[in-house]
Amino acid sequence: MINRLFILLALLAASAPVSAASDRIGTAERLEIGRALSRIVAREVSGGYVRVQGVQASRGRVRIHTSIGLSYYPFREENTAAMRDSVRALLPAAYRKARIELYTDGHEVSELIPLAYRDPVQLRKQIARRRIIPFTNRSARPLVEPLSVAARPERGLAGRHIAIWQSHGRYFDQHADCWKWQRSQLWQTCEDLYTQSYVLPYLVPMLERAGACVLLPRERDVQIHELLADNDLAESYVETGTWEPGGGGFAPLREVYRSGENPFRDGTTRRTRTVRGEATASAVWRADIPERGEYAVYVSYESSPQHADDANYTVHHLGGDSKFAVNQTMGGGTWIYLGKFLFDPGEQAVVTLSNASRQAGRLLSADAVKIGGGYGNIARTVCDSLRVAGREYLEETSGYPRFCEGARYWLQWAGFDEKVYTPKSGTDDYKDDYMSRAHWVNALMGGSERMPDSCGLRIPVDLALAFHSDAGVRDGDETIGTLGIFYTKENKGRFEGGADRYRSRDLTDLVMTQVVSDIRRTWEPDWNRRGLWNRAYYEARIPGAPTMLLELLSHQNFADMRYGSDPRFKFLVSRAVYKGILRYVASQYGTPYIVQPLPVEGLYTEFLEGDEVRLSWRGVADSLEATAAPDGYVVYTRIDGGGFDNGRYTENEWFTVHQEPGRIYSYRVAAVNAGGESFPSETVAACRMPEERGRVLIVNGFTRVSAPVSLRSDSLAGFYMERDGGVPDRQDISFIGQQRVFDLAQARCEVDSLALGSCGSDYAPEVLGGNTFDYGYLHGRSVAAAGYSFCTASVACDRRLWNPEEFAAVDLLLGKQCATTMGRGFRDADFEAFPVDLQDVISDYLKRGGNMFVSGSYPLSDLLRAGASAADSLFAREALHCTGAGQWAVCREPAVRRGRVLVVASAADFSRGAYRFNGDWRRDCYRVETADCLEAAGNGAFPVMRYAGGGVAAVAYDGSTTGDRGVPGRSFVAGFPFETLRSEVERDRLMRDVLRFLTGNAD
Fold first, then answer.
1. What is each CA distance from 188 to 168, 406, 450, 708, 734, in whole angstroms?
2. Which pLDDT tens digit goes with each residue over 96-108?
């Protein structure tokens, strides 16, 4: 009894307020604590001012309530402890042993630590006691599961469903009575298209390669053609076995749809029952593909809990057949994406649905198939309340490809209810667009475990992410940086099932932290991190799943966009977002995670005995992520002009294949681990001709992807497309037109058309070609047409391949390879045309009597650029037998930009005539803005081609004419990229002539 009384008195004493004036926490101490916390926040976050708003103090505990600025900080176990110690040091001596509690945004800071960073033992205990409820879904089978893959992720995102949208899109402005972009046209893009250049080519494939099902409220296919096959169109649909009428479904009854018209209420579906074992019924959808290309394939069907959860769909494409299991208990009555596939033109079977299943007696639904993206078909006009009497109003579609349009229009085409796609009842398309994206998430989730009382598609969405860019301007090289937004106060701060809406903060913190950390560790150490805003943005407030808005950078600020226009930056950021999502999901489900590997490098093919060919490569370690090590590889094969197959798995860094003589086999390799599959490698190829005239090694030295050349001076800033427009990664879907305003004085101009960075929009709906990493195949087709066998190799391949005894010549393709920096140039330049190691390999090869063909925009000027070494200049003269006037020497000559090249050499090896390389923006080929002017250097060198406007376009060298003074062998150097010649006939003719000269083989 006495002991209990003693303990009680001690506790009362500890909790009693301190009365001595010297021990009170007064105004001065509060100001000093606020300044200290502001300094701590400012080390990581820009704009995080902290003010102490209140203090509750006793000898045992001090509670300090601060302003919202403290909540912008990314709290972790270790930094919160250090923060408390910093505060304790500023308190009067009476509180030095007190427990310090810091409150911001209504929470103690320890509660704002993401679950992923909390003590795992304590976290498990809290979850077991339901003090913390993670946001999870129980779903036996995912919406879509690829069945033809060679490797499956076990510690990635398999079975998870993620909703993502790429900000805005083209919309109908009711007040202006016209379609327009939602955001400013600056720095050669606008946000409506810009964020797609992260989400579509990078982020979505990364998530899918980790096993996730990714859902988007906008069209994801940039293919301008769209084909529809439907059970209501007899010519496009064929059944076998027993089928019966189902419920309502899709039917394409109209060319154009008006508000309220739903194509998924215009048609019917068909229905059968599943069987185990061999199929007894099937449905086949056929289409007449208009031209060769990649097309997204979507399916639709009817859903109910009685439907099959493993509907067996097969897509027939140029690479073979790819199978999918689609869970028809969810997702009915809309377009469900299966993948993107290569098709040849012509009428053909595209999709087959079989009733074979793991469970007999389930319902199986067949409705429609959509192939390609197409053009927008939603017509809009001014609403009644805004019309002026006596004026005629017409209905108009956007006239743009559907991928350019906002979510409001895709959601109508995809069968969603008017309450989803037009919350403003057709009176305000601008608000409809951002509001519809939020309602779309709930429409997906309706009827699932996390929204059981709502009607919807029953898809168990785990999270939603809105990918945006922001506005704002800074002086000099300062970036605006990255902002994260979430909201926690909706529905009394809880999701259905009890999870705290602060799980949205977890998601936002993890993604933001990963993005900023990776940027700082690679390209820009001073990249700004902005706040973690808990604000009632509509897109953050409405969804019934943890949601974040990512404002990556300012599309208005030149310093941001110098990075943001570069494909390497886009890949890095997208991978960081994927890693943040992965860590968040793993923290909710309490599972370990592994990050998918980076693409492999150093690929090459080599001939073995008989008809065998070996493919070799190297796995790549990720300096930013220890778990991303590969533990296997998938080899994808293409034969001649077909498509790539579904791949074959190997644990080795080599693979041996049998090749039929006379056919070109191409290969890509992806690294895999338990977290998923990397992006594919560059493409390498090999062909063994039956009666070969010799062998050629094709080396791909064109690895560059980059932003356009950018310059900043005291008065001017911008992208100089006519000097070098950069190199898109495969293709560019965000370029809208060239920059027009370069005057720095206009940086804060509020008139978009006059502001710094203002640009045209004449290319807005276009998809522009880039580096396909498949030019070895294109070169190889011309080599094979000349009668030569060939192997191809990455420029980083084993140097022993450069063997003049095996290969009569080496074809080094350089494309637009040249030394390139990113942003303000914090890192050294990448993509030199002739790095020192390559110079050594080439010099050794040529000294041993090798023959070489080099083509590219900058084979000479990159060696002679400012800052190049004397050794570079010597290599140009002694190995390439060229000299010249330097980089950009001919960029302003119209004749060069037109790409016309004339053969002028008198040597019999070269046929008369002209060639034309590409100087235009095109979908199927990258643009050449600059071509090198060459000069023959030394004995044995002579000009072969000239540009139509003057200047040498190609130089040949014959070592046999120089005696002992020169390098043996022969070479041919072209100042333009061979692969950009506009026709196959021209490429075959030039390759034939070059190989005839190099090898001495007459026709």
1. 17, 19, 42, 10, 8
2. 899 999 999 999 9
Q: Measured between alpha carbons, how far is 527 from 309 in angstroms, rounded to an integer?
A: 46
Closest to 766 measured CA to CA, from 812, 734, 794: 734
Cα distance between residue 498 and residue 670, in whole Å: 41
What are the backbone angles phi and psi of residue 782, rounded to the nearest 5°?
A: -75, -35
Quote the tokens at residue 709: 């050349």
Which residues are paired to 957 by β-bridges? Answer: 941, 971
Give the residue among 211, 207, 348 at the shortest CA–CA distance from 285. Answer: 348
Nearest to 566 by CA among 307, 189, 898, 131: 189
Tokens of 785: 């047409």
| CA–CA–CA angle 593, 533, 191 (5° rounding) | 85
Exposed, middle or buried by CB within 10 Å (0-12, 13-18, 19+), for 18?
A: middle
- Asked if residues 158 and 193 have their Cβ atoms less than 8 Å apart, the reply is no
List CB contacts of 245: < 8 A, sequence separation 6 or more. 268, 269, 270, 271
3-state SS string over 257-323? Answer: ECCCCCHHHCEEEEEEECECCCCCCEEEEEEEECCCEEEEEEECCCCCCCECCCEEEEEEECCEEEE
From CA 288, how far away is CA 229, in angstroms rounded? 10
Which two tokens mark 708?
């356009």
Question: What backbone torsions phi and psi does residue 96 show, to the nearest 5 degrees?
Answer: -65, -25
Query: 374: which DSSP letter?
Result: -
Please tell me the distance from the alpha carbon of residue 808 to that of residue 980, in angstroms, as a whole number.
24
Number of Cβ atoms within 10 Å of the Cβ of 791: 27
Give the span between the Cα atoms of 913 and 8, in whole angstroms. 103
Q: What is the DSSP-derived secondary structure letter of residue 460?
A: -
Which regions in the chain score pLDDT beneath 70?
1-23, 885-897, 962-966, 1002-1003
The pTM of this model reads 0.96
| Phi/psi of residue 683, nearest 5 degrees | -95, 130
The label of the residue with tokens 């019934």 reads 544
Alpha-carbon distances, residue 874 vs 439, 517, 852, 869, 952 (angstroms): 65, 42, 17, 9, 20
Contact in structure between 257 and 413 (CB atoms under 8 Å) = yes
Strand 970-974 vs strand 852-856: parallel, antiparallel, or unpaired? Answer: parallel
Q: Determine phi and psi for 717, rounding to 5 degrees.
A: -155, 140
